[in-house]
Each structure stands twice: as C-alpha cells, then as structure tokens.
C-alpha cells in the first residue's frame, strides 16, 4: 500500500476529497447569497469534469505506460454512456410524451412495435451497470485481439482506432439502429427512482464520479507499479526486446487496453445522467483527439497529470467558448503544439522540475565548512 500511493497520489486524493465533499457541503449549507455558496450548476459541472478526468486516466494507462496511442477512446466512453442512457430511458416508463410503458418515445414515433433484442434487460440498473463496462470491454477485446496479434502499432493503430469510432458514429446516427438516431437518448427523469433534477441526486452523482475517479486511479496505480506494469513499460520502451526475451507482448497490451476501455465506459455512464443526454456526437473522432490533448497537457505517464490536464483544459474550454467561441479550437490546437514543443512532460512534469530546482535549506546548527586558506 505504501508503494501504491506515493506523494503525488496522496495529494491528488486529498484534493479530490476536499473539492468534492466541500462543494456538496457549501452547496447545501451555505446561504444562496453567500460568496462561498456553490450553485447547483457548479455541482453538475464539477461532476462532468471528474468524468473527463477518469476518461483521461484511462487513456494515460495505455498511452503513457504501454505506448498505445488510441484515437478511438471516445467510442468506449460513448458506449458506456449509451448503456446507461438505455436504462434511464426505460425508467421513464409511461411518463413519456406518448405514454407507452414499454417503448421509449423515439421508438413510438418511428412506429417500432417492440423493443429490439439488445434492449432486453436494460430495465435493470444492475444489468445497465454491468453493460457500461462489458460493452466497451468487449469491443476493446475484439479490436485489440486482431490489432495486437497482427502487430499493428504506432500511427497505423491510431488511424485504425479513429476509423473504428468514426464508423460507430455513422452507425449510431441511423434511426434503424434503435438508439435514437441523431437526437440520441435524452429526457431522462429518474435514476434508481430518484429525481435527476433534485439537488441531492446531482450531488450524489458528483460524489459517485469522485469515488469512481479515486478507485480508477488506485486501479491504474496498482497495475503500473506491479510486475505487470514493469513489463508493460518495457513493452512501451522496447517492444521487440520484450518479445525476444519471451513475453507475450500482445497479451499484456490487450489486457491494459480492455481495462482502459472499461474505465472509459464507467466515465461515460456517470457522464450521461449528469448532462442529461447521450448522442452520436460523442463518437466524433475530434473528441478522442481532444482526450489526447488533455493527457499531453497534464503529463503523459503520470496518471495524476492526466486527470489534472482534463480538468484544466475543460475549464479553459468552458471559459473560452463563452468569451471567444470562434477561436476556441485554435486555442486548443495552439495549446497542444506549445506543450508538445516546449513542455513535453506536461504541467505536472514542469511542476516537478521546478520543485527539483528549488534550493534546499541547510539544517540549522550545522558546523561551518572549512574554506581554502583557513587556519
């Protein structure tokens, strides 16, 4: 356990607890007019940032420690979101616009007569939670099995993963797929019988996102500090040598890829009820590229830096899309170029270098050193 949580990890988890619990308490207890009051919209915004941080953590696990640059992780995030969205649509029941207790509104509108087979079981919250991890995990297993056994690496793997998420985006846009088409899944009302618009429910979802981020960090930290993690790093740095000494490289990479996809699916599942919608735009390849920017800005191969980068970039996005919406994408691209050229270690790496260069104070009461020429 001492090796599992290092100094950066303790600071990260402490800040995570303070921010999440503190925000909930200030939202519930501080008067509305008080300068320390946290408004309701901020609770949902923090929860969304935490989901993005968990998503960035999943990408850093494979990119920072296995050297797998995936440009398709937005697909796993979206699949987890759709798995949760399907359950939330079933919870609406006869409270929908058309009052059908079995079919979601968009299916009634499109004259569907019965639920598709892949919607079966989505009325169970436990089944939905399992599918949030199983659906992206299965896709990652199938994709990784063929890609890694074929020794597809580098830019070729990145392009193929991007093609995968683009293909899924086109598929989910179709009305006959049974996922709401262009509009996606929305108009959610309850989760586990709790009103999604209630302040307590929003606070609970935000705390659940914080807990998932903490557990995701501990899982990734355990994987990367174990013997498996050391082999994974060896594969990243010299894959041919690791293969030569007898390691089944494709198995190590496949396991990390599947775990990463499942973590991304959990992030998507927590994201959907907090924003109130999931649609095919989440599959856009640009979203997956943006995740890479988060990790690069925070610090690749640090875990904590990936989460930090996700929060920083999305906070900047929230501010800049309101201040200069037409220039936001240029700012994002410029940020990525600047970090790649001048700060390859990311924000966390720069902070570590500054701390290392800081002069250390000499202990008081130490004996004076002899200078040349002293008697």
Question: Topology, pairings included?
Answer:
Layout: H1 7-29, H2 40-66, H3 73-92, H4 105-109, H5 125-149, H6 154-172, E1 185-186, E2 190-191, E3 194-195, H7 199-225, H8 227-237, H9 239-244, H10 249-275, E4 277-278, H11 285-298, H12 304-323, H13 328-342, H14 346-357
Antiparallel strand pairs: 1-4, 2-3
Helix pairs in contact: 1-7, 2-7, 2-10, 2-11, 2-12, 3-5, 3-10, 5-10, 7-8, 7-10, 11-12, 11-13, 11-14, 12-14
| Tally of distinct domains | 1
Unreliable stretches covering 5 or more consecutive residues:
370-375
Q: What is the helix/strand order?
A: HHHHHHEEEHHHHEHHHH
E-strand count: 4
Strand order of the largest sheet: 1-4
Helix content: 55-70%
Concise synopsis of the structure shown:
The chain is mainly alpha-helical and about 375 residues long.
Describe the structure.
The protein has about 375 residues and is mainly α. It has one domain (about 5-355). It has 14 helices and 4 strands. The strands form 2 sheets. It has a two-stranded antiparallel sheet with strand order 1-4. A two-stranded antiparallel sheet has the order 2-3. β2 (about 190) and β3 form a beta hairpin. α1 packs antiparallel against α7 (about 200-225), α3 packs antiparallel against α5 (about 125-150) and α5 packs antiparallel against α10. It is globular and about 65 Å long. The protein starts with 6 loop residues before the first helix and ends in an 18-residue tail after the last helix. Mean pLDDT is about 90; it is low at about 370-375.
